[in-house]
Amino acid sequence: MFLTIQAKGLYFSYTVSAPYILDGIDFEIKDGDYISILGENGCGKSTLMKLILKLLKPTKGTIVTNADHIGYVPQKNDFSNANFPITVYEMLNAYRRLLKIKNKEAILEVLDRVGMNPFMDSLMGTLSGGQCQKIFIARALMGKPDLLILDEPSTGVDIGSQKEVYRFLKEINKKNGITIVSVEHNLDAAISNSTLIYHLSGGKGHLCTPEKYTAEFLKNEQ
Ligand SMILES: Nc1ncnc2c1ncn2[C@@H]1O[C@H](COP(=O)(O)OP(=O)(O)OP(=O)(O)O)[C@@H](O)[C@H]1O
Asked: Please, where are the H alpha helices in the chain?
């Protein structure tokens, strides 16, 4: 069965009444898409992501996905303190156990995929922003997700590592067919990597190709 994420008449308000942050939106994301969610600060991008992850419930309407396993890459992590005593391997091993994956090789496999094997014994808190992001992507890949959700993957990541991270995301989307939904502040990355842009504004959403987004939305903002 093909993966979809479908929103129908979706309303959301943290106060459970109007005004709504998401004000009656409809969309369908299909298998193999790479969607970047764009919009101004506070427009509801993270809220929409949390609704897809079922961390929040719609106030009205529905949002459903038939994804078998969702990998989630959070924006901020609890391991940014250099004194936090956990190594890359220990963190991934804890997650492996949480997912009830028996084979410890799964850790080495995902580290290999993001080119981070040499950092296996490093403390999480000593990694750079880019290295940390790669480890979080590795962690999200451990359950072999069919859907990967990322919250601003370039935040706190140096330019060089940003390029690597986006190249990798594009590759797993194209080659491995993993559907990607990414909340983005990085407009250039969204336009050059995604297959579709979801633009949120005033509680409404608009789904279009990066080409159309560049021609229509960005022109209007100039
Ligand atoms: N737990 C919460 N309780 C009440 N209001 C919230 C909560 N979380 C977010 N909000 C409000 O909901 C609105 C949308 O927030 P959200 O974080 O989804 O926006 P965003 O587009 O992701 O913002 P940013 O680009 O700044 O990360 C904002 O006005 C925010 O202040």
From this structure: 45-52, 88-98, 105-113, 129-141, 159-174, 187-193, 210-213, 219-221
